[in-house]
């Protein structure tokens, strides 16, 4: 066997060390972490839900597999999108008993039809790369028309491809387009944004940038300014970065992704390119990995007066935190445009490290009750208040 020179041996040792270091980097940062999402429990356990005094929770429907975003018509039909099941539902309360007594599947075989919105009797549905419109939908719930394609060239991506959908007070249709990755500089300028367009898909434009993945927004009832949730990046540990509640009073604001997280945390990879001071900080930090999704200002009259114009947020729950967190509904309190308090409003979907439900969206009913969708239990809940 030939004898290696000392320089040759040093080169081999250095190469071996480099190989090990690269391997450790790949395991720690490049490869997906094992999911730490709370293990699912079977069934619906409403007796586990804790609410403030005077509030109670009931089942509005338990026959909505994969229930996610919700939209309510003026006639009281509740439309519900899904993600993995590819279905859109219509829920009807014929008896007026505050419980759906009929669930109709109005569309199936769609690709992540998460977002639903209503305008002029038409139902808009957001798939991953297009938005569809079902005209005069309530007259044809059991025989839906073929959908009209509003727009079909949204970016194709595997990460954060599901869309939320709402019409704003300006009459524009708003849709978030998530980042195509955990952390990266998006290759398409439409990604990591909130966009808006006319109802027919024309005049598409970017309203806000630096938004990693928003799956919920609403407009303040008095100021008509846009507020939205945004999910923070992964693989920076259990406690960083926080999800965000953001305020976008005007077009053109940038909220930092991928360079800055939670307003004050430079990204380890991209943070040197742009300091946090260049971006709009969040109105509130909501907690790391809680997965803040659907949100609504409370505009009803059923709840006590201190809830008026305050924000309810559905927290879907962590999937990669060593100790699960989220799986609840939060209440964020405002004084003008300033967040003054954050509270847990409803909890109990998470029991220890096992979760039987995952809240996704919230919606205010005409009587003031709060609906909560749950894509794990396949249910919609109704939270009411009684003095």
Structure overview:
The protein is mostly beta strands. It has two domains: 31 residues; 348 residues, Neuraminidase (6 Propeller), CATH 2.120.10.30. Helix content is 6%, strand content 36%. It contains one helix and 30 strands. The strands form eight sheets. It has a five-stranded mixed β-sheet with strand order 11-12-13-14-18, with no helix packed on it. A four-stranded antiparallel β-sheet has the order 2-30-29-28, with no helix packed on it. The longest helix is centred in the N-terminal third of the chain and has 25 residues. The protein is globular and about 60 Å long. The N terminus is likely disordered.
Write a brief caption for the model.
The protein is built from one helix and 30 strands. With 387 residues, the protein is mainly β.
Instruction: Trace the largest sheet across and list its strands.
Output: 11-12-13-14-18
Uncertain regions spanning at least 5 consecutive residues: 1-34
Helical stretch tally: 1
The CATH class of the largest domain: Mainly Beta
Strand content: 35-45%
Largest sheet: 5 strands, mixed
Task: Determine the mean pLDDT.
Answer: 92
- Terminal residue distance: 90 Å
What is the radius of gyration? 23 Å
What's the shape?
Answer: globular
- Per DSSP E runs of 2 or more residues, the count of β-strands stands at 30
CATH superfamily of the largest domain: TolB, C-terminal domain
Q: Which architecture of the largest domain per CATH?
A: 6 Propeller
| Derived structural class | mainly beta
Domain count: the total is 2
Helix content: under 10%
- CATH topology value of the largest domain: Neuraminidase
């Amino acid at each position: 066997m030939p004898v290696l020179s000392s320089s040759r041996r040093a080169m081999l040792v250095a190469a071996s060390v480099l190989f090990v270091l690269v391997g450790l980097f790949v395991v720690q940062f490049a490869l997906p972490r094992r999911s730490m999402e709370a293990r699912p429990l079977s069934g619906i356990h409403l007796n586990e839900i804790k609410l403030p005094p005077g509030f109670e929770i009931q089942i509005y429907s338990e026959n909505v597999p994969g229930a996610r975003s919700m939209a309510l018509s003026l006639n009281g039909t509740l439309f519900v999108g899904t993600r993995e099941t590819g279905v859109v539902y219509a829920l009807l309360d014929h008896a007026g008993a505050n419980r759906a007594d009929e669930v109709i599947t109005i569309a199936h075989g769609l690709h992540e039809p998460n977002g639903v919105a209503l305008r002029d009797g038409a139902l808009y549905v957001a798939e991953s790369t297009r938005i569809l419109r079902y005209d005069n939908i309530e007259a044809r719930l059991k025989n839906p028309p073929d959908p009209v394609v509003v727009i079909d060239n949204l970016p194709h991506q595997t990460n954060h491809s599901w869309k939320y959908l709402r019409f704003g007070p300006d009459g524009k249709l708003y849709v978030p387009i998530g980042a195509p990755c955990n952390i990266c500089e998006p290759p398409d300028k439409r990604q990591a944004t909130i966009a808006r367009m006319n109802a027919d898909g024309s005049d598409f434009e970017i309203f806000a940038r630096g938004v990693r993945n928003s799956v919920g927004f609403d407009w303040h009832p008095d100021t008509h300014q846009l507020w939205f949730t945004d999910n923070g990046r992964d693989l920076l540990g259990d406690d960083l970065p926080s999800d965000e509640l953001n305020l976008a009073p005007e077009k053109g604001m940038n909220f930092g992704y991928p360079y800055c997280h939670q307003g004050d945390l430079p990204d380890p990879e991209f943070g040197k390119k742009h300091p946090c001071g260049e971006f709009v900080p969040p109105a509130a930090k909501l907690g790391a990995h809680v997965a803040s999704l659907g949100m609504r200002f409370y505009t009803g009259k059923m709840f006590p007066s201190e809830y008026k114009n305050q924000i309810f947020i559905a927290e879907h729950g962590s999937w990669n935190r060593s100790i699960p967190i989220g799986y609840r509904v939060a209440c964020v309190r405002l004084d003008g445009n300033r967040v003054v308090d954050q509270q847990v409003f409803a909890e109990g979907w998470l029991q220890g490290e096992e979760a039987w439900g995952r809240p996704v969206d919230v919606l205010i009913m005409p009587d003031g009750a709060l609906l909560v969708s749950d894509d794990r239990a396949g249910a919609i809940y109704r939270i009411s208040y009684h003095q």
